[in-house]
Backbone:
């Protein structure tokens, strides 16, 4: 059988990815430039016994998504900057309730209403630290329409595996541009479902502290009758004020992510095998320009490589640092005022590797020429 | 659970079968609070309908009344301030077999959660909302709420409320709820019936349950102890069924109670199921 290749918009590719991953509930609110995801799922979900609900706002959207997840259905929503801000309340709830769900943030310029139809990568920090309290985020970032499909599946899988909300960052350009996308054969895909409890209801603890810190998850209506609350709770899910239990809960949220960084984190490299002295670090749409720039530089016999962050959070510092032994100049290219820059600075020994920042936040893309120019400057 | 009573099948003990008393008591409510009466009415309504515990989901937002789900042995979700109805929408569409009940307060439902409330009414999704309406924010210490009567006092209205209150029932009717009723913590038998009817109604139901907060509302407004406040309801209600025949002066300053609105209209999750079936035929 031939490959199933289609010309899809990034937002449409997210729809295909969601359906392949087993998402059967979408609660959303219209917002540019993410609306096509809601439109696509409004059309497709009822065909596969799923449900689409257009909620009254983004706060309600993520609330409904968590409600559906708790009732046993893989659920997601999609939004952009202003809506992402409104969702922070329930992203926090999802961390606390350990409710698997996915939020796709098709980034646009901010702050506030900002630039509804223009590209940006300025939600990178918000995706990790947007809601109050201590927690560890999983955030992925797509650089192409095909990655929109694949990383939507990856996001759903990670959320189910770790019982946590997962954010997928795309942007206005990827969301709206059309590219060739290979639709994978569903039988060849790895689809992860949350682990169900094997114990009888009277032994069940919805937030049991297991050796992996991931608790099996029963659904409403399964006969387990547990409690979930946004208040800090014990393993049974009942509110607690005991310091020992409070610390145990917060450690659980941290450790289930930190201890599995190796499994969660992914980067992609281009021309990194021959220990280049100049490396371009970027994510999302900028990585497309970086890869092109590196290719152009190599044609001019300049030894340059590129690293693309697929996982933005937890920050894949170990994966990056293995390439930094030979790196003398690290160019961090991003469509914001240095959000990745601030993070990578924590890990780099500046006596060994000089960090150069290439920022653009005027609503235009960083081009391969911009990056090549920067490479020439540092060489 | 209390085990000292002689006859365990007495009606008063029905409530104990549904409580998580061993795990979660003592509760947070003040002695004499009306929420306990509403909890009893809810449980008796569920027991009367013979619904299995596994098929009931009770959700709530934030506030005194919203602590209720923690104490009952159902599928329970204690959510964020004002958003329980939005969470309930997701639960209901994901598992329509569940009887979804939301416990909320006047601040939770009508201030911060007002938008979710009216839109769930509009969708006519089969959720039963019990509004514990005590006209004040209790948990945060007595601030005036969207149902605090005009000129009455609270900690943030120390000179009297300058705002006009919402009538939650009228709001629900206007927004499209298919069953709207009002009861009080004095008229417990009626309240139990109204809650049971609300759960049985195939669509969005609101039971506006008037309750007492003697700790804050009562103290700020010099309305007395729990007994006095609960008894006040006895003489300040008019049954909706007979209200039309009464002269206006007898209704002045009184609450209409009983079933205020009931209509048959398509329910949201059933509409969705119908849509799926129709699409399959094509």
Residues:
């Amino acid at each position: 059988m031939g490959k199933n290749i289609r010309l899809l918009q990034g937002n449409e590719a997210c729809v295909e990815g969601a359906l392949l991953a087993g998402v059967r509930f979408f609660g959303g609110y219209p917002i540019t430039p993410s609306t096509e995801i809601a439109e696509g799922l409004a059309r497709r979900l009822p065909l596969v016994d799923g449900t689409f609900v257009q909620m009254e706002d983004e706060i309600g959207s993520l609330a409904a998504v968590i409600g559906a997840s708790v009732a046993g259905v893989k659920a997601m929503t999609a939004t952009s900057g202003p809506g992402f801000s409104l969702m922070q309340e329930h992203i926090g709830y999802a961390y606390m309730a350990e409710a698997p769900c996915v939020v796709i943030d098709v980034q646009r310029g901010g702050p506030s209403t900002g630039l509804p139809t223009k590209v940006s990568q300025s939600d990178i920090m918000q995706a990790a630290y947007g809601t109050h309290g201590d927690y560890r985020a999983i955030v992925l970032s797509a650089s192409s329409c095909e990655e929109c499909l694949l990383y939507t599946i990856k996001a759903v899988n990670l959320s189910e595996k770790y019982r946590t909300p997962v954010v997928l960052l795309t942007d206005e350009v990827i969301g709206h541009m059309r590219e060739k996308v290979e639709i994978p054969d569903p039988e060849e895909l790895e689809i992860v479902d949350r682990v169900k409890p094997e114990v009888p209801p009277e032994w069940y603890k919805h937030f049991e502290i297991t050796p992996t810190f991931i608790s099996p998850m029963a659904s409403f209506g399964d006969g387990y009758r547990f409690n979930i609350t946004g208040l800090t709770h014990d393993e049974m899910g009942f509110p607690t004020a005991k310091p020992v239990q409070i610390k145990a809960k917060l450690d659980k949220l941290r450790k289930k992510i930190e201890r599995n960084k190796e499994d969660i984190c992914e980067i992609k490299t281009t021309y990194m095998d021959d220990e280049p002295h100049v490396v371009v670090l970027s994510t999302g749409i900028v990585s497309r320009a970086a890869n092109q720039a590196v290719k152009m530089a190599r044609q001019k016999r300049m030894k340059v490589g590129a690293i693309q962050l697929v996982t933005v959070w937890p920050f894949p510092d170990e994966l990056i640092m293995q390439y930094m032994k030979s790196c003398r100049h690290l160019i961090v290219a991003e469509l914001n005022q240095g959000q990745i820059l601030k993070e990578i600075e924590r890990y780099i020994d500046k006596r060994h590797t000089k960090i150069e920042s290439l920022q653009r936040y005027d609503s235009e893309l960083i081009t391969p020429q911009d990056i090549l120019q920067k490479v020439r400057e540092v060489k | 659970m209390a085990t000292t009573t002689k006859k365990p099948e007495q009606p008063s003990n029905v409530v104990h079968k549904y409580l998580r008393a061993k795990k979660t008591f003592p509760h947070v409510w003040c002695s004499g609070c009306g929420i306990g009466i509403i909890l009893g009415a809810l449980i008796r309504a569920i027991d009367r309908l013979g619904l299995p515990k596994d098929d009931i989901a009770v959700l709530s937002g934030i506030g005194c009344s919203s602590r209720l789900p923690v104490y009952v042995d159902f599928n329970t979700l204690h959510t964020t301030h004002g958003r329980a109805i939005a969470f309930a929408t997701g639960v209901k569409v994901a598992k329509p077999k569940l009887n979804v009940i939301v416990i909320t307060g006047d601040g939770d439902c009508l201030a911060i959660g007002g938008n979710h409330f009216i839109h769930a009414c509009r969708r006519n999704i089969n959720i039963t909302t019990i509004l514990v309406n005590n006209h004040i924010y209790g948990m945060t210490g007595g601030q005036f709420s969207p149902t605090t009567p005009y000129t009455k006092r609270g900690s943030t209205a120390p000179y009297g409320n300058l705002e006009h209150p919402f009538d939650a029932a009228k709001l629900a009717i206007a927004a499209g709820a298919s069953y709207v009723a009002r009861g009080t913590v004095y008229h417990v038998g009626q309240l139990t019936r109204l809650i049971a009817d609300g759960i049985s109604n195939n669509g969005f139901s609101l039971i506006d349950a008037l309750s007492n907060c003697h700790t804050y509302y009562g103290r700020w407004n010099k309305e007395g102890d729990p007994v006095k406040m609960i008894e006040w309801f006895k003489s300040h209600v008019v049954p909706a069924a007979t209200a039309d025949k009464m002269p206006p002066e007898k209704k002045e300053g009184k609450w209409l109670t009983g079933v205020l609105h009931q209509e048959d209209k398509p329910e949201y999750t059933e509409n969705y199921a119908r849509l799926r079936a129709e699409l399959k035929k094509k």
